Here is the input.
Amino acid sequence: MKYILATALLCTVAWPCCAAQINAGQSSISIEGQIELNDVEAFRAVASRMTGATVNLKSPGGQVGAAIAIGELIRMMGYGTNVKEFCASACALIWLSGHPRYMSSTARIGFHAAYDATNQQATSSGNAVVGAYLSKLGLSYNAIAFMTQAPPKNLTYMTPNDARKFGIEVTVTDRVTGVPQRPGVANTSVQRLAPGKPAAAKVVLYEEDQSNPNGTRFVGSALWHTDELAPAQGQSPKLAVQADIEVPAREMTVKLILRHNDDKSLPASHVIEIRFTLARDFSHGGIVNVPGLLMKEGETTRGVPLNGVAMKVTTNFFIIGLSQIEADKQRNIQMMRERSWIDVPIVYGDGGRAILAIEKSAPGERAFSVLEPPTVEPAR
Here is the structure.
C-alpha cells in the first residue's frame, strides 16, 4: 500500500538526521539509530537474503513513512521483532509489525502522536495514516488511541501489562541476554520457512476436455524464492522472483522469472519469462502461445489480466513485458502484491487450451514483497 504522508513525518528529539545502521546476523537483523527514508531500501536489500529472522530494534524514531514501509515488509516476510533497551516513536511502529513480538523485562517502548516536523504540531492526517497502519496490523481502536494520545514532545511507554490489556501479543525475554526464544507453538497467522526448506505452493493445471465441461485437473506444486540473476550474458545480476513449478502427472516443469526491466530499449516496467519443459512424447505437441498473465484472488475465481505484451521466443518459451505507462504499472504492481493466485493461459500445438493456476502462498508473498516493497512518498 502506498502511504502519502503530506506533512506527517514523525520525528523524535533533535537527533542529527542520519540513516540507521542495518545489519544482518545468522538469523536476525538489527536496526539502530534514526530511521530515515533510505533505510527502507537498505532493509529490503538485507531482507531479500533471509527467509526468516527476528528484527532487533534500538532507535529513538525517525520518519513515519519509512517506519510503516519497513513494518509492512516485516509483516509480509513473517519476521519477529525484539526490543531489549529503547525503541520509541517510529521505531515502536516497526516493533508492532512483528509476529511474534519480543521485549525485555526492562525495555522502554514509547509512542506519541504523529506531528509535522516543521512546526512540531500534532497532525490529524499523520495520525490517520498511523491509525490505518495499526488497524491493518489487527490492533483495536483502544490500542490505537493509547499509542497516539501523547503529545509530540512526550512519550507513552507500553508495559507488558498494557499489552495484555489491549490484546497485543508480546513475549517478555530475559533482560541480560536479550535473546528472544521463539515459542514452541507454531504461528497460525504467518507461515515461516526454515532456511533451505521452502514450503511448496499449490499449482493446478486445467486442460480443456470435450467430454468434461469442467476440464481435466492435474495438481502440482511451486517453490517460490528470490535470487540474483543476470538478465543477459555479460550483464550484472539483478534481483528476481522465481517459481519452480512441477505438474508430475503431465511430466511438465515450468520456470517463471519476474524481474524489473533495466533495458531502456524495451518499453516495459517488468519482464516475465516463462519456460516450459515437457516430455518428448507430450500428447499436445508443445506449447505455442501464452497470451499473457492474469491475477486472481482464489483458485477458482476469475482472473484479471496484467497490462502488458506477450511474445513467443520459441515453442515452450515466452516473454511478457508489463506496461511501463505509470497508471498501468501501479495497477499491475498492486494486483501482483494483493492477489494470491496467478493464471497462465496456454495454447497447445494441437489447438487445445489450458490454464496453469499458481498459488503465491506465504513464500510467494514474501518474494513479491522483496521485489516490490511498500512505497512511500515523503514530504518535507
Remarks:
- Residues 220 and 379 are 47 Å apart (CA to CA).
- Residues 1-17, 179-197, 376-380 have pLDDT under 50 and may be disordered.
